[in-house]
Design goal:
6 helices; 313 residues; Pseudouridine synthase; 2 domains; alpha+beta
């Protein structure tokens, strides 16, 4: 059975300089005001009630229909409010975002390490989505799938809303073939392809995902393809797309990927480096290629990263 992607609501405020308005779901009921709920929202930390009132007066705080919101009215649980939040200070990611392919429907890029796919938490302007919107001069750019911030490689975006669902379905229905490269310690018996299959779940707020009992939802094929003086180069083929799947599966085989700050063990020294502007220790994992039959034309497509897991070594 295929997995259907949950459709995100359409924001009633347009993007500003490539950045979408923030959607806040009110979790309190009428015992709190809308303004109080917004002040308690983590992503809006630091905004005073006066600052919120000034934005509301400019019509920059609206409900899901685009109507101005009265901050003093009682909140309604699980309703949405949209506004522009202040952008966080972010260390600039000092790597290019090469375009591998562009046509009227899609643009394919070779994402560098450390650049998030799209805004989330502390990473907003330093994301592939915002960079592309600004470079191409259109806010219609939207990701068809995602790569982890620490993972580099091939990433596909759509350029027109009317084709977005067709390309997103390639990934939701597992019709896209993805191959990765990883650098890790050599385990010679893995020169014969090994399949790892288990159940992975990740709880919001937890840094790491975990393996749990239950029906299998994560499958990867792992092959040692080459031995170098810096470790083994592995070819990885995920058949599913769980969060941190390849990183966990490599660690479970005793060959954790070089530069991984989470698996098999949490390494705060690595995790904190990018936030200090130190990008010298990337996770050696690259989305090497992406192949699919184009959902609009039926044409076979294959895009390959120009990056190597040995780059910068």
């Amino acid at each position: 059975m295929s997995r259907r992607r949950r459709r995100d609501p359409v924001a009633p405020l347009p993007p500003r300089d490539g950045v979408d308005a923030t959607r806040v779901v009110l979790r309190s009921g009428p015992e709190r005001t809308v303004g109080e709920c917004l002040q308690e929202t983590r992503s809006l930390a630091g905004l005073t009630i006066d600052a919120l009132a000034a934005r509301a007066a400019r019509g920059e705080i609206v409900d899901g229909r685009g109507s101005p919101v009265d901050l003093d009215r009682p909140a309604r649980r699980n309703t949405s409010v949209y506004l522009y939040r202040d952008l966080p200070d972010e260390p600039p990611i000092p790597f290019d975002l090469p375009i591998l392919h562009a046509d009227e429907h899609i643009v394919v890029v070779d994402k560098p390490h450390f650049l998030a796919t799209m805004p989330r938490g502390r990473h907003v302007t330093q994301t592939a989505l915002v960079r592309l919107r600004r470079e191409l001069g259109t806010d219609l750019v939207s990701p068809a799938h995602r790569l982890d911030r620490l993972t580099a490689g091939v990433l596909l975006f759509t350029l027109r809303p009317e084709v977005r669902a067709a390309y997103q379905s390639l990934f939701a229905d597992r019709l896209a073939v993805k191959e990765y490269r990883a650098l890790a310690p050599v385990r010679t018996d893995l020169s014969t392809t090994t399949r790892v299959a288990d159940r992975i779940e990740k709880t919001a707020g937890d840094l790491r995902a975990c393996v749990v009992d239950g029906e299998v939802n994560a499958i990867s094929d792992i092959t040692l393809a080459e031995e170098t003086d810096r470790g083994g180069i592995y070819h990885l083929r995920p058949h599913t797309g769980r969060t941190h799947q390849l990183r966990m599966h490599m660690a479970s085989l005793g060959v954790g990927i070089v530069g991984d700050p989470l698996y098999p063990d949490v390494r705060p020294d690595l995790a904190e480096r990018p936030d200090r502007g130190d990008f010298s220790r990337p996770l050696r994992l690259i989305a090497h290629s992406l192949a699919f039959d184009d959902p609009l034309t039926g044409e076979p497509r294959r895009f390959m990263s120009g990056r190597s897991v040995l780059d910068g070594e």
